[in-house]
Design goal:
homodimer, alpha+beta, Glutaredoxin, Glutathione S-transferase Yfyf (Class Pi), Chain A, domain 2, 2 domains, four-stranded mixed β-sheet, 4 strands, Glutathione S-transferase (chains A, B), Gtt2-like_N (chains A, B), transferase (chains A, B), Glutathione_S-Trfase_N (chains A, B)
Chain lengths: 209, 209
């Protein structure tokens, strides 16, 4: 298997953590978004949509998107289960992963890509350029604050995001919460359940790499 | 099982099609987004995040988000498989489903919710109000055109969106393509592979309900 990574971006980090939690050995290549390598012909020949992460399977299948990579690895390497054991758990993991993507990851990306000069005309990942929309950056910041409230409510009723053990939903949520630093947002001090959960995930070996 | 549906909205339709393709009998309740019923206390007691669809399992687990509902049903009712047979297929289904959500569903929603007077201050689903951003509506329209190109390229190399048979990725893509009518966008006449695929999915019994 061949894994195309990017050390500075949140979405490749999610896949990197998932692979590490599975204990799977992969060959890795780093693609520098800072240098625009994802838009160069060499990488576009791997993924024409110019997004990272990418996992090329032993069968040669090119998988992009975190869920594509996770679903493949979960089926091939079932232990430890990261996408739920029972049917109810499997539902809860993908449900909370979707909530984290839509209400955490998307607003952080909206705020960064529409507000930071480094992303001028790159408001959306992929081959096509799109102009920044400053109002969308503001909306992103407001929504991330709401996301932190939602997490605190959830983590007051559950030890992990989706169910009673660590899953893909914790990986996605942790990476988005951590990445919110780029828009200068941190979990509020009073959100004690979230802060305890965050420190616990941060201490895992998969979060160090 | 109890299914909370909404006859006018695309995301509940995705879950409705998935349930129909599985041949599972569920009790349904319609929640009218037009009347704002998703924001009323009666429904907020079911899903505090005020989104539809919702499936309440026989164990009482409350599942929201299409992927939460699909993952549960796929595990409980494996036949017919709608989320892939092999590991590679499972990866491809969730990969293409994610592409359809981000590059098809999200731009259509951006265009509708930021451009139509009926969604004033309701630019994002859920309990919190957010003002419309007209520039985002324009960007949505431009991105849907790019999505149609992407689909045509994909359907020239594959009979279905994810692999060689009908899956969840076809359901999501079909519903978003169909719903693009609300922003007055249709698959271009020259996109013959997409139009043939669209007509084939539209003829399935699950697309009639």
């Amino acid at each position: 298997m061949l894994f195309y990574d990017c050390s500075t971006a949140p979405n490749p980090r999610r896949a990197r953590m998932f692979i590490a939690e599975k204990g799977v050995e992969v060959e890795s290549r780093d693609i520098s978004i800072a240098k625009g390598e994802q838009l160069q012909p060499a990488f576009r020949a791997v993924n024409s949509r110019a997004t990272i992460p990418v996992l090329v399977t032993d069968e040669g299948t090119v998988l992009t998107e975190n869920l594509g990579i996770a679903a493949y690895l979960e089926a091939r390497f079932p232990e430890p289960p990261l996408m739920g054991r029972s049917a109810d758990e499997k539902g809860l993991v993908l449900m909370w992963n979707a909530i984290a993507e839509q209400q955490g990851g998307a607003p952080v990306a909206d705020a960064l890509r529409n507000g930071h000069p480094a992303f001028k005309d790159r408001a959306i990942p992929g081959p096509a350029n799109h102009a920044q929309i400053p109002e969308l950056a503001q909306r992103g910041v407001a929504r991330v604050a709401q996301f932190f409230d939602l997490l605190e409510e959830r983590l007051n009723e559950s030890p992990f995001i989706a169910c009673d053990h660590f899953t893909l939903a914790d990986i996605s949520t942790f990476v988005f919460v951590d990445f919110a630093r780029v828009i200068k947002m941190r979990v509020p001090e009073g959100n004690t359940a979230t802060r305890a959960w965050y420190e616990a995930i941060k201490a895992r070996p998969s979060a160090q790499i």
